[in-house]
Write a structure and sequence with these properties.
This protein is mainly alpha-helical. The protein has four helices and no strands. Helix 1 (about 10-20) packs antiparallel against helix 2.
Length: about 100
């Protein structure tokens, strides 16, 4: 991994472009175009986090939606204790 130092000019551009609500890909491309650097979107995301700058989230990205656990199965699909024991053979006399 190569350690890259962000210059004051690049930091200023990062703040300015984040204020324009550009996504990280576009910010990296613009910083690279103006300063001749070779940052990718991950470098921009990391630098913005370390500097406390809020990045806009791209529409349709997975990070935009809250994450929920899968909904529980409906009651009709859940095993009731008697049905489970029946399925295992306990209620049919197999283990009596």
């Amino acid at each position: 991994m190569t350690i890259v130092r962000w210059t004051d000019e690049q930091n200023r551009l990062l703040r300015e472009l984040c204020g324009r609500k550009l996504v990280s890909d576009a910010i990296a491309a613009e910083i690279n175009r103006r300063t001749g650097s070779r940052f990718d979107k991950n470098a921009v995301i990391g630098r913005a986090r370390r500097a406390g700058i809020e990045l806009p989230i791209a529409a349709g990205s997975h990070g935009a939606a809250p994450r929920f656990r899968d909904a529980p199965a409906p009651a009709s699909k859940r095993y009731k204790p008697g049905r489970l024991l029946l399925r295992l053979g306990w209620l049919e006399g197999a283990f009596r």
